[in-house]
Each structure stands twice: as C-alpha cells, then as structure tokens.
Queue: 2 jobs
Job 1
Amino acid sequence: MLKQIEGSRGVAEAVALCRPKVVCAYPITPQTHIVEALGEMVRTGELPDCEFINVESEFAAMSVAIGSSAGGVRSYTATSSQGLLFMTEAVYNASGMGLPIVMTLGTRAIGAPINIWNDHSDAMALRDAGWVMLFAETNQEAVDLHIQAFRIAESLGTPVMVCVDGFILTHAYEQLDIPEETLVTKFVGPFQPAYELDPEHPVTAGALVGPEAFAEVRYLAHHKQLQALKRIPALAEEFLQQFGRDSGGYFHAYNLEGASTVVVGMGSVVGTVLDVADELRKNGHSIGVMAITCYRPFPFDTVREALKRAERIIVIDRSITAGMGGPLAADIRLALENRLLPVHTIIAGLGGRPITKASLKKIFERAPLGELPEITFLDLNWDMVKNELGAEVA
Amino acid sequence: MIEPKIQEQSSVDGVQTRVKFYQTGTFTAGNRLLDKELRTVQSSQERSNAITCGHRACQGCGEALGARYALDAAIRAANGNIIAVNATGCLEVFSTPYPETSWQVPWLHSLFGNATAVASGVAAALRRQGKDHIRVVAQGGDGGTTDIGFGALSGMFERNDDVLYLCYDNQGYMNTGVQRSSATPPTARTATTPAVGKAPGNPFGIGKDVPRIAMAHNIPYVATASVANLHDLEEKVTKAMSIHGARYIHIFVPCPLGWAHATRDTIRVARLAVESGVWPLFEAEHGEVIHSSPIRRQIPVEEYLMTQGRFAHLFKPKRDEERLSALQAIANKNIERYHLIHEEANA
Amino acid sequence: MTRHFAISLPVGSSLENHTGAWRTERPQYADFLPPCNNACPAGENVQNWLYHAEEADYQEAWEEIMRNNPFPAIMGRACYHPCETACNRATVDEAVSIHSVERFLGDRAIAEGWHIKIATEKSGKRILIVGGGPSGLSAAYHLARLGHSVTIVEAEAKAGGMMRYGIPEYRLPRDVIDAEVQRILDMGVTLRLNEKVRDIPAAMKKESFDACFLAIGAHISKHVDIPSPDAGRVLDALHMLRDSENSSDKGALIGRRVIVYGGGNTALDVARSAKRLGGESIIVYRRTKEKMPAHAFEVEEAIEEGIQFRWLETIKHLSDETITIEKMKLDSDGYPQPTGEFEVISGDMVVLALGQDVDTSITTGIPGIKNDKDGIVSVDSNMMTGFPGLFAGGDMVPSERTITVAVGHGKKAARNIDAYLRGKEFSVKEKHTLATAEKLNTWYYSDAEKAVQPTLEMLRRRTTFEEVFGGLDETNALFEARRCMSCGNCFECDNCLAVCPDNAIRKLPMHLGMEPGKGRFEINYDYCKGCGICVAECPAGAMEMVPEVI
C-alpha cells in the first residue's frame, strides 16, 4: 500500500509487520522517530502482542534484546551514533551468541565534537562486530531490507543491522509502498529461536571459552557470514518474486557494463551520484555506479566480477579512518586483488555536510583526466584548515 | 506445674508458628526430628543442586555456596521453572569453562554489566510466550551489581521488571585479583587499596549501600541475606519468588582468597559479620524496612575483623584504635538503624 | 535447538572435572567420646540413649540405658550425675538435666512394665553374689543377661543395700527400688534374704558355684571418742538410717534436737531425715561450707529445709541436754586447727556421720585376699581378688563410694566373670578421643533453658518423707532430651550436606540395620576440595580433618 510518510515511519511499519515481540529503545537522534512510532503502534494495538521497553541506555537496549531473543522471541531495537558505540560490548555479544536480533542504525557521525548529523562513522566503527550490515539506498529499500533482515537473521542465527542514513532518509517524507501483512508474514515466517532457555531441557549459554576452542568459535562465526553471503542474494531474489521489488542483495549495479569509471557508494548518497552519472553519461562519459547494499559480509567475488572491466574506481566514503583513509575504499581495493587500477577515495558528507551534484560532477570529470588524487575530502574548506594549521599545509 | 517448653519460631510471613523445640533446626540446615517443610532445601538429598560438582571455585568459596543456596530455593519456589542470567565474574568463570558447565538450570551469560537488562529481556520474552510460570533470576557479584551493572540494575528496578536479582557480595573484584569495588568496606586491603601509607586499606566515607538504594526505587521486595543464615536466606528467596516485579536480595558471601581467611571459616566469618552488626539482615517492601533479624550473640566488630588478613593492619604492628572504633561505629549504626538488638531476645 | 559450539554446553558436564585432586586435607566423620559417657561411672552411653529419647522412642532409650545400668529410675534420682558436671552444654547455658530424663525413662519403664530379653542360651554356670546392694544386683543383672545362673545372698531383710538403707525415702521412694529389683529377679535371679555367708570358699564349694562376686559394701561406721555420760545418746548415721527404714514408728527413734557430726552426704541425709521426723537438725562440721564433701546442691536443699549448720566446729563433750563444741580455724594448708574457744549448745542426741569401713570378717582367711587398714579389698584390673574365681566390687574395693560406681563395678565384674568362666580375656574397647567443648559449633543450638523438675512444697519437705523432686512430664522430658548437643556424634542435622560448596556430601537413604546417626552421610572425595567448612560447621564436632596421604 502506498503511503506518503516519513522514512522512519516506513521503517517502523515494516518492522511492525514482522511482528517483533520485544522492541526496546533508548532515544537518540536521528533514530527517535522509528521507536516512537513503534511505541505508539504497540499502544494502539497496531503492533499487537509486543513488549515496548523503555530502557535506561543503549547498552541496556541491546542487552534486553539479547535477553528477549535468547528467551525465544523476535526482538528489535534501533539506535544511532554514540548509542551504537555505547552498546558496542553488547553488539559484539549478540553476534557472538548468534542471536537473530534486527537493529536499525540511523547512521550519524560520532563525536567528539558532538554532531547529530548524518555520516557512516557509527556503522564503520562496528563493521567488525560480526553482524550482517545492510545499507539502504532509499527509504523504500529501508522498508524492504528490514523485512529481509528478520529472515536473514533468523535463518542463520546472526544479528542484522540495517543502516539507514540519518535525517536524509529517516526524516524524509516520500511515497513508500508498505507491503501487505500476509505477504510479510509469509516471507518472514515464524520466529526460530537461537536458544531455548527451557527448564525442561536446560542448557548453559554463554560459557567461558579458552584458547583451546576460541579460534574454532571465531572460524565458525566467519563461516556463518560466508553462509549469509550465499543466502542474501537468494533472499533478495525471493523478495523480488513475492513483492515485485528489487531490494537488497549484494549491490545495485547502474550501467556498469562497459563503464570505464565506476563510482561506488553506500546509502542515500547513491541517489545524488546517479543523477550526476546520468548527466555525465549524456555528455559521453563512460560512467557506472555500484551501490553496495551488503556491506558485511562483503561480497568480494561478486564485486570483483562486476568491476572487472572498470578502468578507474571512485569510492564515496561517508566516514574516515584517520590515518588510513576510506574504509569502503579499502574493501574495494581488497576486492580488486592484484588489478592495478586507480581507486580514488572521496571522503564526503561528514557530519551532515551536503554532498552536492556540482561538487561530485567536478570530481567525476577529473577522474578520467588522471587529475584525481588518491584521496579527496569533498568540499573541504581549505581556508579553515590552513588557518588552523598555518605553514604546515603548503 | 511447669509450663511445657515451646520454642517460638517466626516465619517469613509474620505468622508466629509454634513448633516443638529441637536442639537444632532453627539454625542448622535440617534435623532428623524436624518436619520436612521446616527443614531447608539444602538439607535434602533431592535438592536441585543448581551448581553441581566439579566447578572450579576456590576451596571454601562463599559465592558458590550462596549461589546454590539461593538458586535451589528459587527452583523449589518455582517448581523447577527457573531461568538464570549471570553477570561476568567469579561465579560465571568458575562454573562454565568450556567444555564443562556446572549449571543444571537454563543459564545465560552475556556480559559483566548487563545481567539485569538481559534478564528483563528474558522476562519479557517469557511473558510474550505466555510462559508466566517460568521465572527469571539474575545474579552477579558485587562488582557486576554495584559498579558496572549498576545502571542496568537501576533500570530494571525502576521498570519493575519481573526479575529477582541476587547479588553475591564478596566485597571486591575477586575474579580479577582482589581489587576494590564500591562494596569494599572501609580499611579492607585490596590490590587497589593496599595496606600501606597513613591510612592503609580502603578509605572511609566512600562506597555505596545498594540495598538501601534498591529500596529507594520502591520495588516490592529488597532483602539482605548471608550464607551463615541458611533458613533466613531460603525464606527470603522463597518470599521473593512469591512476588512479581523487581526484587533484590543482597547476599553476603565471604571469599577466603580475597579476604585472607581460612577456607573452613567461610560461614563463620559470615556469621561474625551478622553477629557484630557489620552485616544487618533485613527485609524491605516497597521502600520500607518490614523486618530485621536480631543479633543472637552480639560480638564486637574486631572479633569479625580479626578473622581476616585483609584487616590485619588494624591489629599489627599495633592496634589502630581510632579506625577500629570507627568501624565499630558503623556496626552500631546498623544495629540502631535496623533494630538488630531486640530487647526480648536478650532478656 | 541449535547448539552453539563451545558457547553453549550440556548441563552438569562439570562432573567430568574431579576437583578432589586439589585436596591436601580431607574431612571425615568421627565418633568422639561425649563427656557425659566418659564421666558415667556405670559406663552408660548417655548420648546414645538421649538420641533415642529425643525421638520419643522411650523404650529404645531405656533399653540403651539397660545395656549398662539396670536401675534407670533409681539412677535418675539418686545418682550424683557426674555426666551433668561434664556436660558441654554448661558452656552454652546449663548442663542437660540428664538425670531427670533418665528418671522419666525409668519411671515409664516401671509404669509400662518393660522388660529386658535375656540370652536364650544358658551357660550352665552358677555364680554366687554376696551382697544385694547396687553392685551385687548390677552384677546379677548383667550375668543373667549373659545367660548365667545367679544367686544373691543378702544379709538384710530386703535387697537394695545402700540404695535402701543409706538413701532416705524422700530422695528415693521405696517402690522404685522394689520395682527395679523385682525386674532383675524376674530375669530368673535367685535372691536369698536374711542370710549371711561366713565362708565364701566353702559356700562356693557346697553349692557348686563357679564364681563369686563379693559386694557387701562398707557399713562399719567410723567413730570418734566423745566423752559422754550416756552412750545411748550417740548413734552412728548408718544405724540411724537403717533403723529409720526398718521401724514402723520412725518418730520414736530420734531426739528433739539432733546434732549431726560430719560433712558428707550421709550427714545431710541424717539431718534431713531427723528434720522430717519432727526434730531440729544441726550439722557440726570441722571445716568450712566450701570444704564439705557433700554435694553443694544437697547442702543448699538442706538449708532450704531449715537444717542449721555450724561450720569450723568440733564436738568436744556431751552432757545432759548440752553439747560442748570447740571452734576451729583453718591453717595455711586448709586443715582445721583447734582454737581453744568453746561453746555450749543444747542438743539431746549426736549422730556420727564420719564415714564407713569395710567389715573384714568375711574375707579373713581366704587365701590370696588382701585388705588395707580400712578393710578395703584389693582387686586386679578384672575386679578379681587374689582368690581365683572370687571377684569383688562396690564400696569394699578401692574407689569412690557412690551407688553409680557400685553399679559400674557390678557390670565390669559381670563381664569379667563371664570371660573368666568362658576362659576368655575381657577387654575394654579403647576409648575414643574426648569430644571437648572446643570441638563443637554451639551457635547452631537453639537457646533453651534447662527444664526444671517440680519441687515438693516446703512444709511437706520438712514434715514428710514424700519425694522432694517430681519427675518431668513427657513434654519436658522430651524437651530436655533435645537439649543434648550430641557431642562428638552425628545426629543428622544435615549441616555438612548443606554447607559443602562443592556438593561433595551425599545423604544416604535410611535403611534397615543402620545404626542411628552413623553412616548417614558420605563424602565424595572425587569432588571434595578439602576446604573444611563441613568440619567447622558441624554443631556436634562429629567430623575431623586429617592430612591426605601422599
């Protein structure tokens, strides 16, 4: 059903259709509208048979979700930024315990300095936490990814984080197709608990594991991610069949065939990139776009295959690993293995800085000319930097 | 004519039940002459043994004992329908090193500071599955309760989640090598409050009284207990299990390693803590103290302190009169606050 | 469900880990000797019969007493209960009133007509017992239990010896003696009264006795010469008590103002009896109250009844209606010395209660017999005199002179006679280590003041021979039995089971034939880490730590 609603509302409705039994939340901008909506739906009965638990911190939010998931019910939470970092220990724990929790991350910068606006610093900080991480390109995809997320999580026994760009998506009103409940119910299926804490059949969960088995535990976690890598495109295909929409999967490819320049990005920035690429292609540029949806596990083989004819790659990174560069670019380089071709990192949109078509266009135009440095901070105000650093910056 | 001697024994619900006198039975675990229902859970070979043999707790571990006492009582109260959530700490480490676990109940360990929140989640899950007969117990040491898990504990309390939290208080971070916690008493020597300098050991005027903080949340039930008073402990757990909502029992569990006392003295040390007023035993409902257990044979605090190496510097090389009297004053305050000396008991 | 490798584990799997290897010391159950048992001259297993009494299994408790002592009802009244002096409960509040429980059991046995089954297999041996006092009756009882044929020859008109002729009725009613003596006779023991044996070897030979136990007591009163115009005014205590027992008109025997000379229990018995006979009793003793050989509680009872005491005085002279006494003082060694200070007091009779000697006439001429200057007969460790087959016990052999010691002698002699007749050596089991108060953890015992026996009202105490102390009713007897702390012996409080942090103690199911209190628990040394909490928290001190053998 088509609705003209805010992205957060769309996510909330999608989550509600998946019928979680426990939703726990601690407020943090820009995640708030999602959990507010869910809380309201629990009260009105739109989301029936569900506990909405106001907790005292994000650490508790994830911990309650750990408990309720282990306790045998579908569990959901949402957070952003500092909240994600505050729950970090529990985030790792949830994946270590193999709990199929689904969490929305309304992506946002991390302080200091405190900043409430969008980038991917939070998501990137926990990219090694053992969660499946999906990035929504649009609000429609955010809706769809949540439905897929529960299925992925529960079929594999792994938590799934759906990353939705803060404000840009979460607070944007647009027309969204909210799927029919019966379809969602059929697609998601009944909850499959990872553990059964049953007094009739007791088990110890969360044992201390020493050197004699720790590596094996970690290998098995890696193996599970590789399984997820197989499952994710299959589920996207199934979703397409049932809902008629191409959402999820590894990535969305736009005009990659024969493109000499490929721009790689994640999340809402892809929309802007596509506009610029379309314009450039009209002007004769050979440019394609790869919008990564499945960031963890990272589909190296498929990405490599899709990029095999590209001559240069521009990666839009929405965060910076200080002293190293762009984390997404690093993964792309890894995917390319031994192919020697330029990979340009564009650090863009940090802390909510607008990523304009004009700025991107300049970058994309320079790339084929060989004028693009390895790393570019988009629209960096050099006067401010120079003022601060003085003679250091030539 | 001589009146037959009948021993009064107060039961938890405040009803005075008259039972025949036995040489023991009021204080020992059992007694062959006692009615079965008046004996403790621990006196039965059929007890659940929530933690069974083979665990790796140190010799004489008070926490291993306290946890079994409390959980077995909870299991009995819930007809076996218990799920336990455990904070990181000694109890978790010594009971579940792969590939062996000592637990015989469904047991879940997540992290150091989140046992209460996890337990809240489990309770919510059970509620949503209609499994109201299964009850959730969360447990941790004093570090996991009064320090790192304090926020989660307070959150569980204020939400009045249906969780019984059991704090096994051995007054320090024993698992990591005996460091100070906010439950460490003044003057106690720990690895981070060494017995050196002008004021050796843990300073006065710091730390927190979590049972009273728990009471300030107006939760339905708060109690203190001790491994030295088994009947009392079991009665409190049983009572707590009869109540829904957030409940808190803070159990005193000596640590031979961290406190430097003889392994055989674990219960004795706990008993001396009670008998000196150092560890008041009381119950509170909705923020009000409703009952306290009188001291049976009062002793000066130093008799308690002398049993433990962590207080040795109060006596050697010379007696530290000033700080000994300050510690006595703390016990006196407890005695006054909780009315631990009953006139009739001493009559 | 999904099994998460390593993170989730099957419950109870730690049983694979045998933590017993950590142990350097091991706890074990022990049976230490309770101080009451240790102190009992009759060798009663007091703790064990209290164990049964606690369960209200009175007959079993009574039978346990009867293993060692055939007179529970008498002992519960007349024994000076050294068990209570030794009782560890005194360190908590007051000693257990063992005697009152024993009396309760003895009285119940009489009321219920309980009997002891005796060995069906007869030995065919015949034993002569000379003297039907506590020692002789005790020996007869034990020998009968062992299947022997026993004949008691008693010089007096009734059996009982000092129990009857030395202890006044107000302390020991005669129907109690009669009942407990009759029970022995009912076992087939022959009692011949009013008969004196003059020549033991001849008597044995004549009636083909295989052995003889001689227990005639000590009833020659010690005398001092007190100048007196009328010898009839000086009596000895035993005669006075004996006459009082045998006479139908007790009041005629006694003066109005009786001076009793001596400080022992007999002096008190005489003084208290005289008081009851309507006289006024004054005890004159040459040393202080504290030095009196009599039991302090009997002194207090006498004072309550109005007996007057004159300490640090000796009797120098009697004249009509008056008695001259000399005041004494204690020297630096605590001995009384004359002061030369005299006083004349009124009094129409003096009873000497200065102790007794043994009548040696019966042993004179028997080869191998040795007597000391007071006539006391020497016996070896088996209670046998120098004459083979002749055993002796009670007041006539070297020992403390109490009826309980005498009863103990009777038992010991009986067992030795039995061994002698069967050509065996009777050996006493080695005593266990004493269960001292430090071994106990008394915190666990409920606070319980001693149950008090009812006391006869004072007027009747002063004027009748009714028993001064009443018995406990069942409620109080049960209460008192349960005050026993079971020193050194398990009484199944389950503490060890409960306090083990390693669940290494198992409670065994009760099965037939298991001795109560023994073997109810088992330590699993596969898991016991040897912390010692079970030992420290055993209320009864019935466990001990022993080093592990390497």
Job 2
Amino acid sequence: MKRLWFAVVFLVVAGSLSTIEVISVQNDYYDFIDTVDRARLAVMNSDYEKADKISEKMKEDWYEKEKHLNYFLEHSSLDEVGTEIAGLTDYTDDLSRNEFLSVTDKIKRQFASLYRSELPYGENIF
Amino acid sequence: MLISIIRTFILYLFILLALRIMGKRQLSEMQTSELVITLMMSDIAVIPMSNTSQPLLSGVIPILILISLEIIFSVLMLKSGKFRNIVCGSPEMVIRDGEILQKQMRRLRMTTEDLCVQLRQQGIFSLDDVQYCIVETNGDISVLEKPDKRVPTASELGVYIPDKGIEVVVINDSRYLSNSINLCNLTREWVDNTLKENNLTVDDVFIMTANRNGEYKIIRRDMP
C-alpha cells in the first residue's frame, strides 16, 4: 500500500511539473511576444532609439527567461532564439529596417513553435 | 562533458530508487509488461544522459509516470484476477496427461524445439516423462513428471528428516550480517561467543554459516 502512495505522489509531481511548465512557458511566450511587437512597432514608426532600447531590454529579459525555460525546453532551440535576439540591436537603424522586421518575425515564429510544441494538442501527441 | 557526468549520477540514483520502489518482484520474476517497462526506462534515461541539449526533466517525468503506472497496475492485478488476465494473460497447458496439445502450442507460436529446450533446462530429456506442462504468464514452463518418473519425497519413502531450519551466512568477509543472524533466531552475542570458543576474531573469518539449531561452519580467511 505504501508503494501505491508513492505512485500517487509521483503522478502528482509529474502532473504539477507539466502544469508549471505549460503555465510558465505560456506566460513567458505572451510577455515576450508583446515585447517583440513593441520593438517592431517602434521600427515601423522609425523610432530606432526606442527599438534599440527595447531590443537591449529584450536581450536581458531573454537571458533571465532562458534560465528557467531550459528546465523544460530543448536547450539548442532556446539558444537559437537567444542568438537571434542578441543580434537585434545591429538592425535598429533606417538601413536595416527590413532585416529587423524579418529577424523579429523569425524570432516570433521560433518561440511560437517552441511554445506550441509543449501544448497538449493532438498534433503534438500523435 | 561535465554535464553528462552530473546527469549520469542523478539518473543512476533515480533509476536505482525507481527499481527499489517497484519492488523485488521486478527483478526476480519479470512479466512481459514489467520487462517492457524496464527496457523503456533505460532507453528514456539514456536520452538526457547523452544529449545535454535535452532537459533532464524530459527523462525524469516519463520515468515517474512509468513507475506510477507499473505500481498502480500491479496493485490492480493483485486485487482483480480478471484485470491480471487481461494484462498478463493466463497460464496455458501444452501437455495434458502426457499428450501434447498441438492446438495450444500453435496458438502460443511455440515449436516442439522450444518446448524441448525448456524441458531440458528443467532436467527432463524425454517428452514421454512429462505428464503435465504449463506455460506460465512470464514464459517459463512448469512441469509435473509422470508418477513413475518422479523423485520420491521423504514422506513417500517414510523417512524422517529433522528440520534444521535455513542455513544462512552470518559473517561474510569479516562483516556481520545482522539480517541473516536474525533470520535464524540467533544473536550477535552467540556469534561472538562461538568465534571465541574457536579462538577466532571476526577479522579471521571469511565465511561463517549457521542454522536455527546453532550448528555452524567457519571458513577462515586465507593468510596473505
């Protein structure tokens, strides 16, 4: 009977960890996408100083987020996103406007793919 | 590399704990489902061990689920015979009254060679000697030989054999084995006194066995 309790505890632990993962990744995803969108908007309005500040902040935020996202998501995929974000500040000028929009779009898609792959949808399960 | 080493340590301890929690049954009499789970666990553990890009949790969580399912299933099998039959199947008789049940053997996809191999492993070299043969759910066979081929028991021969209880190792390589000492209702003091009577200390003993009646045997350690 003691073993049965172990089984129940293990199921609860596994369930809790999975729930924490989904909630944590979801929160980070929405936070992050919001920041990326603000940076994109700044570039579209030719406010490159603001875009540069947001990109710099995004880099710092990502560094913090990545620490706990690494517990749940594949490290190499997170590194790819991190590398793209680190290079964003190079594109915050009028000449590189299109590159900035293209890279941020890629970052959004990469992170969205990482986030969606953790959700309990049929396409992820099967 | 260092990450792999640390992860290997963690996962090794984790798997060890998992096998302990699953119980001794897991190691001694594996059912097909248990064997599958053990193989799956080892495969799952290897992924985060060798690929440091994978989070450790991606190995730990599936193992937790497998252990839980295994425990829950074994409890359900214990409570319900019907459930046990669904998961493990039921024992199948392949020889009845000395006659091979060919239909059953075909159903089990078992050849006569497979049967003969298993019989030989049980020390039976002729099919004619077998009265009943049952294929158990874990794939082993249980055999009852024909009456004239069976080894008679002491009671059948009318011989009295005194019960000396189980003989266990009480000192192994100069170390006391408390569990074994308790198993044959002896005490550490009895072991020490016996050694004293033989002018020995525990360091001189390689193996000492004893039974419930206090009969013992000592094998001394070879001098270097």
